[in-house]
Each structure stands twice: as structure tokens, then as C-alpha cells.
Amino acid sequence: MITMKSITFSKHYGTKKILLLTAVFTAALIVLLGVWGVLQYRDANRYKAQVRYTCESALYDLSAHLQSMDEALKKSLYAGTAYGLETLSAQVYEAGGYARSCLAQLPVGYTTLENTELYLAQASEYMLALGRKASQGYSLTEQDRTAMQKLSEIAELLSVQVGQLRDQMNDTGIWELENDDILYGSQGQNASFYTSIQKLEQAMTDYDSMTYDGLYSDHYRTRTSELLQSAQEITRQQARQKAAALLNKDAAALTDDGDAFGVIEAYRFIGDGFSIAISKRGGYAVSLLKNRSVTTESRLSEGGARQKAEAFLTRCGFEDAKFSHASTADGICVVQFYSEQDGVLVYADAIEVAVAMDDGEILGLESSDYLLNHRQHGFSAAKHTAYDVAKKLSSLLTLRNARLTTLPNSASEELCWEMTCEGSNGETVTVYFTDDGLLEKRIVIQQDTRS
Questions:
Q1: Using the 8-state DSSP alphabet, how is residue 384 labeled?
Q2: pTM (2 d.p.)
Q3: CA–CA distance from 145 to each of 80, 300, 345 (Å)?
Q4: Which domain holds residue 412?
Q5: What SS3 class is residue 377?
Q6: Using only C-alpha atoms, what is the Rg of the chain?
Q7: How far lies 56's CA from each of 164, 175, 177, 195, 289, in Å?
Q8: What is the DSSP string of 253-269?
């Protein structure tokens, strides 16, 4: 028989049990939230430290490589032999390539340092062109020396400015701000890395145009884009929808960031850790940059990164882009694509895609070269076979692949044979021969950069 007393006791006991369990669960939740908060704080500090280390390291190395460029350019002015000029030209080309790599590591949009990047590219290719001409008996003219002197002055000025910027960032304590403040200056534009780094562009105001036999020459950059001229112009709202779809985000997450003018006119948008530009004609993705921490522990292979990049380019509308090569460093795989016509790889039509190796996210895109140069070429048949070209290779090289490509010269793209080989130390060595005359035009050594 159940009495009223036992019922009262049961209710009282049940209430105490519920209160006890509630207290236990609350305490556990507090502990879990505390642990989560500590982990988030630790991850935030780790990311903050990574941003600081990347920026400081890139600025330090950039200053050093600019100084190397300046020294080699100064010495080139006094070169009296073809061998001397060729050697120094190669040093400028190498230092310029390293400097461009450092510039790419800075967490700013591509268009922000467009002129600085162009200077590094043109200085490198201009000196490489002079070195090639010297090997064929060409002597420097007064115009050449004037151009080299100007390139040297800019390299020296940029080197000093980059060093001052690095010191300024350290002295003002900007690194102690939150990451968004470091990059974009939400607590004041004068205290942001984004604003400070733009000062480098001021050195480029007197930079003259350059025309030569090589990539990035102004006679290529200033010509009208056949692809964009024939495309229909879109509205900013249409561009926003296109950008949102590529980013897998709601259109409301994109903030207007003005327009980009020049050869490629584009609508620019920014958001939480990303920036993107969409061409006004055709609605093509011109550039994309995402800033986030990437772990160096790779879950993807370079083949997997290539598949991610190819799928993204298809979504962008670049269906004819063909894979060329990939390189991985610091957990990011940069995949290079070019267009292919009549079995010829067109190097002027270049597209780069950056893929995070930890989860396959697309972190970057640069398609301006493709958009500027893509057109129908109508290549004539090759005069030589791969077998003919292979006879010209050094005995230290083992041929792995041969294909027809183009390299730019002062008139148009020049048909060449690209011979991909393995060097004596296991490195990848690519040698380019002109199809007309089988001249050894360029040698590129690619070291394994996978981490």
C-alpha cells in the first residue's frame, strides 16, 4: 500500500535528483565551453602568429631579392662581353622570380600591387631577352643602358621601402592587433598592413613602358582583348551573383569594393577573408584571393588538387584550359593552366589556381593573362619532330615528355618545342627550342617544393 508520505518523499527525491543532474550538466557545459574557448583562443593566436611570420618573412626576403636585382643590374651596365651580360641577366631573372614569389605571399589582393608585380616580371624578362640577344652577337645600345639604369633605381628604391615597411610594422605594434585589423585596418586605415603595403606602388609612378622579346612586354599588355571585346557587358548585380556562386556564398555576404579599370574592367567585391573581381564584359572571374590559415599536413595529393582546380575552372567558364604543372609549398598547391589550340600549348593564355592541401578549398585564382591574350591563332604545321629536337639535348638530360608550345617574341607567339627532362640530380629541367632553327631559347629548372 502506497501512502501519501511515500508519494511526497518520491516527489521530493525526484526533484532533488533533477536539480542534481541539472547542476552536473551545467557544470559540464561550462567546462566544455571553457575548453572550447581556450582552444579557439589558442587557434586564433596561432593563426595570428602565422600571419605575422608569413608577412615578416616575405618582406625580409623581398627586400633581399630586390637588393640582389639592383646589384646585378648595376653590374650589367659595365658588362663588356656577351658572357658577362648573359650571366648577370640570369641573376636578375632569378632574383626577380624569387621577389615575385615573396610578393605573392603577402595577404593582399592581386590588383593592389599590380604595378610592382609588373615591374618585377618585366625587369626579369627584359634582362633575359638582352642576355639571349647578347649570345647572338648583339651589343648594348644607349637606350638599353638607360632602361637598365632605370630598372636598377626602382629596385633600389623598392628594397629600401620594403625594409622601412617591415621596421614600421614592428615598431608601431601593428602585429598585436587582430588579424582583420592587421590586414584591412578596421580600427583605422593608417594602422593597417593593407594600406601600408600600397605605398610600394608609389615608386612605380615614373616607371616607363617596356617593349622587348618576352613575356609581359607592353605590346602584349596594351593590345585589345579579342575575348572580352566580343563578350556582352553585365551589370554589377549580375557580377555579384556570379561571384557568390563561385564562392558558394549568399550574395548578401559580398560587399562592393569599387571597380577595376585598365585593360580589364571589372567589378570588385570583398567579404570575410576574401576578395574577388568579375570582368564587366563576359562576367569572367579575373582574380580571387582568400586569407585563411592552412595546415601543412596534406590530405590531398597534387593530383587531387589538380582535380579540384579543373572543376573550379569549369565553373568559371574556362573549359579549354589545359593542365601544365603544379607546385606545392606551405600547404598550398599552385596549379598552372594554359589554353591548347591545334595541339599547341599557348603560354600567353595562362591561368593560376591555388588549392589548400588540407581540405581542397580554392584559395586563389588569376586569369588576367588568359583574358587578355586568348584568341584563335591558326598555327602552321611544325617544321621539326620531337625526335629532331631530342638530338639537341644535353647528354645529362633524360627526356620525359615533348610537346609544342608558344613563347612570345616581338612580333607574335613563336612556335617552340618544350622538352621536359630529368636532370642528373633528379630535378625537372625544361628546355625550349624554337621550331624554326632549333635554337635553345630557354632552360627552366624546377626543384621539388613539396613540404
A1: S
A2: 0.57
A3: 12, 48, 34
A4: 386-446
A5: coil
A6: 28
A7: 12, 10, 15, 16, 20
A8: G-EEEEEE-SSS-EEEE
